[in-house]
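anyone else get weird line breaks when pasting these?? whatever heres mine. first is seq + tokens for prot A
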Amino acid sequence: MGRWTPRLSAELGLLAVLLTCCCAQENPCFAVRAGTCSECLQAWKDCAYCPEESFKGPRCDLYENIIAHGCSAAAALTAKSSMMIERKQPINMRLKQSQVSPQQVSMSLLPGEEKEVDVEVFAPTKGPLDLYILMDFSNSMVDDLNNLKRMGTQLASLVKDLSDDYTIGFGKFVDKVVEPQTDMRPSKLKEPWPNSDPPFSFQNVIKLTSDAAFFDSELQKEKISGNLDAPEGGFDAILQAAVCGDKIGWRDNSTHLLVFSTESSFHYEGDGVNVLSGILARNDEGCHLDAAGKYTKDTQQDYPSIPTLVRLLGKHNIIPIFAVTDHSYTYYEKLREYFPIAEIGRLQEDSSNILTLMRVAFESIRRKMSIRAEDKPKAFVTNFLDTSGRVVEHGAFDFKPGAIGNFKMRLSAQQMVGGKPVCQLEPLGKKGSIRVKPTTFNAAANVDATILCPSCECEKSAIPAAAKCHGHGDLVCGRCQCYDGWLSTFCNCSESSAAQDTSRCLGPDMKDPCSGRGDCLECGTCVCYNPDQFEGEYCQYDKTDCQRYGGFLCNDRGSCIRGRCACNEGWAGNACECPNSNATCLDSKGGVCNGRGECVCGRCKCPESDMSMTSTCAPNFEAQLGVCEGTRSCVQCQAWKTGEKKDKTQCDKCPFKIVLVDELKEEKDVAHSCSFRDEEDDCTYRYNVEDWKPDSKVKELQFQVLKKKDCPPASLLWLLPLLLFLLLLLALLLLCCWKYCACCKTCFQSCLALLPCCKGGRMVGFKEDEYMFRQSLLTSDHLDTPMVRTGPPKGTDVVRWKVTDNVHRSPTHPQVLMKPNPKEIIPFPISLRLNRLFSENLSRPDSRDAEQLRKEVADNLNEVYKQIPGAQKVQKTLFRKQKNAGKRQDFAIMDTVLSAPRSSYPDIVKLTQKNVQSGNLHDLKVVPGYYTVATDREAAGAIEFQEGVGSVDVHVPLFVKDEDDDKKQLQVEATDVPLGIAEIGKRFVNITIIKEHATGVFSFLQPAYTYSRGDGVAHIPISKEIIEEGSSQVTYRTRDITAKDKKDYVAMEGDLTFGPEETQKIVPVRLLELSEKDGLLADKQVRQFAIDLSNPRQGAKLGRYPRTTVTIADEPDPSVMMFKKGSQNFSTTDPTYTIPVVRTRNQDIPATVKWRTKKAQRFELSDLLKFSPGETEKNIVIDPRAHPGPIQPETIQLELFDPSVNATVGERKTTLVNVADGPHYKPLEMEQVQNKSAVKGGRLFSPTNLKAKATGPRNIRLNWDAGSGNPAGYKVKYWIYGDPEKDAQVLDVKSPQAELTDLYPYCDYEMRVCSYNALGDGSDTDIVTCQTLEDAPGEPGRLAFNVISPTVTQVSWGEPAETNGNITAYEVIYTPIDDDLKAVGAAKKVKIDNPKKRMLLIENLQRAQTYQYKVRAMNSIGWGPFKDASINLASQPTRPMSIPIIPDVPIVDAEAGDEYDGYLMYSNEVLRTPTGSKTPSVSGDDYTSNGKWDQNFLFPGGSATRNLSSSSSPMSTVGSNYRGAGGSFTETNTTYMSGGSQRTDMIRGGMHSSEVIMRKRSENRSYMDENIRDSIVMGDVSGNFPDLNARLSPGIPDTPSRLVFSALGPTALKVSWQEPRCDRDLQGYCVLYQLLNGGKMNTVNVTNPAENSVIIQDLLPNQSYLFKVKAKSQEGWGPEREGVITIESAVDPKSPLSPMPGSPFTLSTPSAPGPLVFTALSPDSLQLSWEKPRKPNGDILGYVVTCEQLHGGGDVRSFEVNGDTAETSLTVPNLTENIPYKFKVQARTTQGFGPEREGIITIESQDGSSLSQYNSQSMSSREVFQMPTEVSTRMNVSHTMMDPYFSDGAMMTTQHMETSGMVTRQVTKEVVQRSVMGGTTVTKKMFYES
């Protein structure tokens, strides 16, 4: 064919290898360009194939592309799908049964194709109904059952009302009859409660029946039963009711309703309680009811899971209705969300409202309908749409019974399934009958769907040895398929010929082969380097070299083909920039460009005019404050030759002409009616503005002006001379008065002072009488109201003013009568003028100047306002300047907010005024004469007139609130002049604000958005809040900030029209790629642009966010992928070669890279490696045995190439694989045995060399050698490490390798393999173990709140149930929110690096503010999801006892700033603080001030870094665990110190270092001389630092440099200190101590200066003491060192078990029993249970329980309980309601009794009626640990695991999992808090079950 003949065959052959995944996704036809015609048509619905022999383009491409390349439309091959409705019977509304139409549809779909079917459904008004009631029969439901029995006939009547064809049934459930769910004592198994049935799991009592009388009679026979724990086994009952259809009685053509009634939560699969009872098997989802209807496998299998219930109820068309009480409503409300259709109702305590609840739920269900697609093959995806085409979620179809409902089913055929083309699926995956039906229907639309996989007829008629192929190949579908040994497009080049002539790769006028863009291969074939960019026979066309528009190639509306843009349908132009339609030029009337312009390339081209035009050529008067205001001057000059444009040259420039008329049309008949006053004659002129008519020839606005003005009556001209004479006379009198005053002022000063002329004549007052505004036009919440001064300008006048909100309201107005709470904490905005000039830096809150000044202001104002009771710290401090402020306008004004009680407003005003007059607020300099103090309804302040100043603005707050009246009025009053001689003239000014009622509110959803340039388009939503139905419009326009139009983005503007029901539209803004210059800049500026909303029309207004800012983020750094090693070594005996590839940088995104082999002797391999988000390593596995030929030593090179667009290849892009010759040995005896076995057909031997390697969090890859024999396959057994092998899963594979999937992350697995043949299984391999890789953790466990005070809380959380690795850190985010859960303040983050510290103490929270708390965990993979909860501390009840903070808990200050982890510290750095003190006593803090490191403690040139903070609220304690009996050996067991913290100060260039020395847990030390116990030591490491204390005189000793406290027992303490520095000899010490809350000061004198410790033995346990130590010399006493310490002990000093001070402790008796758990049984009885002591120290013989009233009264009762079980319980009767009781439990061994475990409990009741187990009663519990012989250093947290003060309805489940997998303890806690409205009783319920 000549040297220029295209050689596309070879080019396309390599193109498939070089194409990237990204391009394959953009055009699926690319991936099969080198394939056959059939493969092309099967790739995608829009793929086409060109079989023409002369065609030179890519044969497989989109249809429009191959046409653009020159293929004729007649020759192009495409495939068409089909759809046929085979049966469509119309719905008969007279039939009382559910119907669906059409009934049968068949369709075929090409891969990637979608089809829609219109479906009609009908549900009769009263169709068949099956109602099954499933009721909780635990003892707490006894009153509910009694009520249900009484309502039996009413229940039957209700069902009759709901349906004419009904059945009703009844079932009951309790829980599994096994411990710990059920009391297994024989007596309790027979009758758990008086007059009750034995416990059971589930029983079908009444099969569904239409006999209402039979139902009622059977129901009367039922009796209640009972169990132990609060959660019930309802899930077992629901599953059996669903799957046992025949035994329950469900009918086929009816609606199935299941009413589930309970007041408790539920057990579910894997919640742990079954592990305690030994039930491990999963639920088999089968029906297991005996003849009596009882569930028989309750003790053999677990509860079902929630997904199982959802699936099975949906499968059997059962809709659940959850009728639950307040106790468990929250749980079932969340459970309902998992079901497509379900209802929940709030049940009364006695179920008296169950009938009403069922009726309401049924009506709600009838209105909803969930559409399902059943039996769907995997190749299809279904969506359901409403009639408007919107996709609708489950249960959201609102179809009315008795009427026909319509919806659309969209069926989509997938292109790829499981990584392979859909046409390669098995037949069952590509074809099937899909049943489309509502959930409650049995009738369905059957859709027979098939994936169409077409084939080409031309493939069947190939031309062998075609002439076009030079006889060396077959011509198939227009393309040559060359025989072996021949190459090129037309098979005219032999492999053996010298075909390396590069000149054959040169096109016309080309200098470089293949245009320099590709490789010239054999026979002159060009293979382009980047086929995605270059194309053509010689790679001469660049696909990125076509014209661009807005930075987008072909405007993103076409394809660049052979150097030109081929535009998509509907677009034209060289760059496809012009839409063919004029839709973008339509105006609001439906016309084009308002008739004033023409639509050119999709935009209106408006005629030139001086008037501003909109984008549709309409006059834009909005820029001129409206039509009337924008045209008044032109109308005035043309009609009357007056006004600001009366000059003819100015008037001629007006863009319109007027028409004078004798009469104007009515205002309703014109677009605008205007009237203005002519300033020159004081007359009013009027005119109308009319828009042009569509049929009018003149396309301009028409201005009709009324000829006659409205003028006031003629003035009385004859009065002018008289007025002039009187004015002259008055002037003469004033002049005489002035002269007289000047000469007589000294004699008659007191009299003359009464004359205005003698006061200087100065007047001050407001400039205007009234202001009126529309609220929508307000741009600020303040108004600068001018106040003026007249008269001589000499001197200074200070004017005080005040403003009152809502003065228009009468005294009887409801809002006026509603008095606010004087104790309510409200914000007080305060403004002061600082005595410093304003700078631009102060306007930026994040600048250093603003930060420093803000800190100075806060420190000084907090010091001043601390005099106000209840005042908090100032916040939100900002700085500004005020323009009209006289000579002070360049001074900075400070605005801040002080929170304080409302009643303190007068005190704050007086205090502010007093300090401002002095010019100082503490140390802050302010300008006298200016201040503002405001509330939410009034304000007061002062302004200053300096000498020579005649006007000053008053910054008046407007108090704009949502609840304002439609028209509200404020009144500003000038009250007095405290400084100066001016009189007040115009005293009042009224401000009126009018609130418009809009039909809709336009707003952006967010104030800011961030998009990446890689996104291409920023989709910005604009929302409309519909107030009244109707259409409305709004204008949007982009505006540059730091981003530039046509450089960073494409500017957009236009009008959006919202229909009556439209609530949101999207504005797409195109983002442009960085230019090469900008991409190379090191300091990339953040690029931002704004989008503004304006000109809302048709009654709408702008809302909360009329402007949004869009930030354009640059592309993230690419991932780097490379080989892990530069070379790898293997032997010829290795079964596989595994070569690892690693990824670094930006590992959170997916990335791909290709690899290929080079220089291999037997194979050339290539493939694609895919890295999922978070994956850092992948393996290339080569099986040398899978290729022909012997395995020989060789060196293979592997290369990485062609990474994805977000990745790059690193420095090790190649690696060498060295295969050496290795020994292939096998013992002779074994070989003989194997051969013998094989000959005799014996059992196969085990495979060898089994290796396992984790390839991901859920994947393990296995490889092994096959061994001898001829196995038919292999069985891979794998199970979780620690589980029995009988539970293993088995995988059957045919090759000696396997991939295990769906495993648990970071879990150890055991595996073994055996081969098998027709004779059976062979021997197993040895067990190998492997651990899967880590994955991101799950969400943390329950959040718990330990409320310390209304502003301090301790947050704790559980470890994630799925750690998926080793947890390394936690992050806590807390945010103030409002009632709508929207943030009202900045979110603050705290990162906790120690994963063992799952607690956080947060101080200084805003009082009475609700916060949202979110916690997430992190492991080596990254962060997991958040667990969140919300709580308002002020709403929590008072704690039953003071609970100290657990030591070593992180502490943060909520007011400390927004820095991440900036103020994180731990409570072991803080000791207990005196009440009211803000300075915690930190041992050794020589250089602290106010509890924090003094950062100013520096010498010139020095610097310091604060890395330790102290807190004012939390208190930590010291305690010890004592073992031994008086010996010198002591074991230290300090549980709350786990590390050290260090502070460093730079002083004069030297280093002073102090550290906290903490001993580790269980650190054994021997002390031979003294019994030193655990202690907190803060001391100096170096000790050689300069003396920085200024002494009173030489020779006086310094402060002892540290205190060391060592606990010697619950009442004894050793106090040690370090000798202070002193220039003279010390003479002794003095130790003083007293109780922290006051009392006698005790003194211990130490006369021997060599002794620096004392032992104090008369202390009280659990009390805080203040210690002081000072030293003495000849010159006198030195300063004192103070410390506060508490010995935390649970020993009651009055207990007989309390040891005497100094007595030894013993370990012969048992430790205290486990936590006490209380369960209310009735108002006068409870069940008490506890666990066995953790350290029994012998066999437990029994327990002694004592019970007494907490506050005295009554007898002390004792109970003896025998036994040595792990958990023991006792029923205590004859208690009294509302009386707190103290219980004590002691364990007994042969050595005696151990310490007590104490708990306090109260059973509270609302009334004196008889109450059931959980009815209207509450329990409050606390525990005190009594440990005389084992003093624990853990802080007493009052058993926080049982802490009742979580958020309402919270459920906490704690599981402790040992490494062996055994569950050792689970505690389930339920908390219910219920407020009774209308009364004074607050009922709290707590149930504790262990």
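and prot B, same format (seq, then tokens)
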Amino acid sequence: MDERRVADYFVVVGLSEEPDILDDTSLSDSAHFKSGYDQDPITDIGIVFPSLNEVVPQGYEVIERTPSGLSADLNHGSLRSIECYLCFRRGRDKPPLVDIGVMYEGKEFLMKDAGKVEESVGGRVANVNNSAALTFITYRRGSPTMPCNALVVTDICVVIASKGESPPHAFCCINKNLNKGIVGSDVFLCYKKSMNRSRLITYNPSVISRYPMGNLEHFPFPDSVPLFCLPMGATLEVWPEEATQPKPIFSTFVLTVSDAKHKVYGSAVTFYEKFADDELSDEQTTKLNYEKGKGFNLHASKSICVLSHWPFADTFRQWLYFLYNMVAKGEEQEISIERYIVQLLDEVPFPAPRTLLQLSSAERVIMTQPEDLPLPRSAAGFKDLLFNLGADNCLLILLLALTEQKILIHSLRPDTLTAVAEALSSLLFPFKWQCPYIPLCPLGLVEVLHAPLPFMIGVDSRFFDLYDPPPDVSCVDLDTNIITVSETQRHILNVRLLPKKPAKILKTTLERLYESLCQSKKIVDPPPDPELDLEIEFQRRRREQAQELEIQEAFLKFMALTLKGYRNFLLPITRAPTVGTTDPQALFQLTDFLKSRDKNYHKFFTLLMHTQMFIRFIEERSFVADGDQGLAFFDECTERLAQDDEDIRFLEPDMVHKSERTVFLLPPEPTKENSQIYTEFTLNPLLLKTTGKKRDHLSSLYQNSIPGSPMARRTKHEIKSAQKLAQKYVNQPALWARCLSGTCHTLYFMALPSLLSLNVGRERAVLQQAYELLVRATQQKLACDEVCYRLMMQLCGEYSKPLLAVKLLLLMKRNGLQPNALTYGLYNRCVLEAEWPAQSSSSLLLWNKLRYVVLGAARFRRAAKRRQAKRQSVTMDSTLNLLDPGDRVASRSSLDSHEAVPVTDGVFDKICTRVVSIVKGSASNGSEQTDSGVSSRDTEGDEGDFQEPIEDIHITFTPPESPAEYVRVLSRSESAGDALILDKLQQSNKKCSRLLQFEEEDDGENQDEENDKISITKISRMLITENDPLGAFDDPPTPPPITPPPETINLAQSNPLTDEPILFRSSVHRSATFEGSPPAQNKLHRSETVPAATVASSLASLGSSIKMSFGSLKSAANTMAKKLDEIKEAISTSTTSTPIKVHSTDRLAAGDVIEPEGESTDGSEGGDRQRKISAEFGSYRGSYANLRDFEDMPESLFPIPTESTSSNDSEMDIVIASCSTCHNCSSLLYDEEIMANWTSDDSNLNSICQVCRGSTVPFLSIRIKPKDADALETFSIPYLNPLVLRKELENLFAREGDLSLSEAKFVEEHPIIYWNLVWVFERINVQTHLPNLCLKSRSESKTSVNVDKRDEISASALAEDSGNMQPVEEGTDPLTQELAILAVKDEPQHLAASVKVYCMWDDPRLHGDKLPLYLLYQQRDTAFEQNNSTRFMQGVISSVHCTELMDPMKKLASERQKTQEQKERNISMPGNRSIYREILFLSCQALGRTHININAFDREYSVAFSRMPDGNLKMFGPQDCPINAKSLYCRQYFKPLMLP
């Protein structure tokens, strides 16, 4: 249930038993009542002509002067008109005037209940116009039975507008000129209305009763509530007996509590109750001049109020009116008032999103959840602001607020007053008003108007009956739409100060919205129907809510345009804090910001930057609190603003809760014993008892005090932005894979607080390794959002690591990620509050600067050397023409002899016909030999079966052990240049392996001979590097090579035809002196549109490089690589503009994969730096055939696992398989397909089956085998999308805290989240404490119930686990290695790999009795009698060796068709396995997972599938199609899976 509370207190305020009188003596010395504040209302009005000897009647007052001292002649400025003055009389002998007007005779008609002054006091025509047209003064008089608090005319004045006069405060100007003549001044009549004040006494209000009587835990009852419920004081009044009861008045007010961090909204209804004559004291009788039985009676004011932390003013108004009517009707009530109060405060749930509370059969109230916006919550009424002030005055009041003037807002409508004041405070966003702010100021606080600082205060207009405002105050009258700027600022502040473009856009928008509001006000709603008006009420509220948002957005856009680009002038703290670090000048470049603005508006920005709210804004922006999401949202608004994009929406409608769910609540049960008739509003404490469990709902408002608040909490805007990015990325294969992988990395950082809590004393190492993991993720361009950086910065602050926080900020900027307000604030607080290391002295900084200078010089020198070598290779003598026609004679070389090196095809032709082999380290050129003599026929020959069993094939990757073997291998090359190199090798030193540095051996007898061959350049370089203490001249580190698996291919005995020397083969160790290696196994098709001259020159230079002397073999290799690059550029330049023609017999060109962006850091095979050759050639038939965009993509960014699924050194083995079955068609779904078909919805658990295209929920199959246990525990859980998993983990952390992931009970309480996290962390190759939680959870479940006994057993079990720790496998990420080192020392149960986790590609249990080929291959020894199956698998493997997949694809499809013919012929029948998976898994099983180039396999399979004849395509189903791009990328960005 939602723990938020609808209302907090119910209060009854009125006269206490001994009230304190409220008059000028009880207020501050600076707040005396003005003279005549208790004057009688105006009852009569007349016209007098003094120049005609007319005399003012007795009791009348003549208005002789205007407010500025001018003559109040109504014909002012006329030449021949007589003087005309206005006079009036005050009194209580008759009903007062309630309205005054001006009527043009003949053009207007008099209202029925109005009268006009036709004659002057002397009996003449009372024409007040100086022309021939007649103009009369009109009036309306109140009825004898009018309420005593009705609005009546209390004052009249005349203003001359042509002389610069304006109406005084609270006066309403009649917008009709009294002087219609050609000559004369513009004279206007003004009057003031106020509540009719009868004989009364004003007291300080007091609390009569309230519920609950005690204080709430997080919210004590404010003592100032009575003053705000009755802002004009509690009154005791004398009324005539014929006066009717006045209507109750609804008012709202706002209080600030908890050091102004939270607002409390009050909703009050003020009314009058009869006061007993016997309770009147003698003093009161004297002051009121009251006599019993003289036609008068007594009344006292009272107020009922509801306090809440939520602005439910409309709902509380209806509810309070309902309670008031229960008392005012004087009827018997079956349900007590107290029961209604208890129901609202204790039983009504918070609306989510709507709650309908039925009060009676005819009345109900509706509560709607407030807007879920990233803006500060308020009771703002933007519609009231715009409707009462208009567009022009809205701009003026905005200027007054932005320059921090003394603003006094007044109105006779207290609810409108509060709504407008709240709107004015809210439209300043992102600024916050820092000065006194009282939306509805009571008389008891009136002294604040004389404070020597800016303020924003709202008062009742009756205030001006008592006081005159100070001259330096700007008054805003909501009743008359008049803004009076203070005298001191009147000539300075003008709307033209505002920036022109933002102000113009704002004004245009407000004028349009103002017209819309006026039109809607004219529409009269039909009378409500209790049975049908519910949905109409919902629609009306949604419509009003949309209007509010539209007006608010207009002001937000103005502020965003005005402050656009301010973030560029923020100054982060990057050094140890000193005095003045937090000054505004040190946090923000004030001068530069002013220079970046338009010079025409420097005055406005100067005034703005000197305000307290701007300085506070800079401070909050630099040290923003975790719970403040508004500044981050404002930053996003400024970024989204384009120069010409003015129609962008910031507050989109979908940001407001739109659910139609409504909770209906019935009224309380009636009880006859509690039925009563109310004569006054009083509460019985005995009936204020709750019937249900009383709850404290305020904890959600004070989230900063919750110890377990999640660190990784995202703002609402960040969640929405992430959803938009996911929707954008889901249709882009590479970006979608990065999005999923980045989300998985984010999950790791979310688990980081739990990891740190378990490693006390190891925080520095864990944080450093987490930083390195973040660096690796950014290098791979993964979609790690800002939460990772913010969480790291927060942890750096918690564990006092400010230097690491600075590195994180630099990493963000280096990757183009600008920190938002939350991240920036956490960073500054971290570096400001953390303890900086003492050793960061100036000498260390100087040494670091020197090191950077030397490093920079070394890089320049290295680049210069490369450029010089390139120039030398270009100018070399080209003595060998590789394009000679004699070189194109086709011939084959023997595999058994290295002496015969015949002339062969040209290099370009060989590059064009080269094919990347699926099996790494081998190539296909028409024939293949193995150790056992198994060979495949040429592709043009007949198909046949292999005669030798596949299990006899011996495969090895072992390099030759002697130099002679290297020479023998190199002699197989068909290139003439390679033959010359071999001749040099045989004529010179036989120790060619040492000369080429294929292996690093320490041979003492050849050391001197080796040193003699080192050139002077090499010696000088060695001397420099040996004496380089800074390490500036060290070569870039190369990742350690991957240890080859047990299954290897013997290349020394079995090497196919190839067009490249073994020197540049990926299976041979590269020389350490090589700057770069030429491309291995890259094949090119020559384009028919490539310019012959360009290719000829490049190949000629290439030939000259090959024919160099072998003494400079390194230079020759570099030159060859560069020339191949030139060929690539020539081909790429041609192919980008001209289509390529490819013969039908050509293969799809493929290049060796390379590491994208820099060197590999994860130990994968793509770590060696290799050159890339463009192979963008022809496309093939079908949507799956063209994979040329993925030729250069590595198989995976992670190392291929080589361990088996059983380990003797682990306490527990966990095997997890992601292969699932579609519940629609029973097809098998594999991991990359599941990930590729996930949706961007973070609430959708489904993936899409690629066979039936139906939605299905994938599952993770988990098998747990403890050590020394034969039984296996097997179960399945839903396989969650990382986006879904993150959302669920965030919700869990919000409930249980960040450290819940460190408890062993997490495994049993949240198994789905736990096992998905284990799977995810294994897939991104990071090691955490989660696997060991499973072991710990199981050990705790088996312990004794005794707590002490259980603790001892757990301690011994953890100690035993520490002895079984094993180092992690070589090649894993740095974090895993570091944690493994730390695990050996103190707390191994949290870090050590005592539990082994294996991630499987396939689940054998899903295949049933019909095993796939790779499982049959595993059982070939036990089922050897199946000779046909064995030969069939041998044929498939041999075809893979030959890089020819069409034949096995046809055979598998044919066999499957035969099998299905025995049943029902249906290609998509349940249990159909993919031919693609059959061949791929069999190849990985037979040849070794690390020996298969899966990218090459995918390309060849795609080519074969696209070239499949139409007759054969009928045998293939959707599951047999080649892998698509999204699946391929999803496989690349995650750690490779293992086969069972």
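btw re prot B: The two ends are 46 Å apart (CA to CA). The chain has a mean pLDDT of 74.
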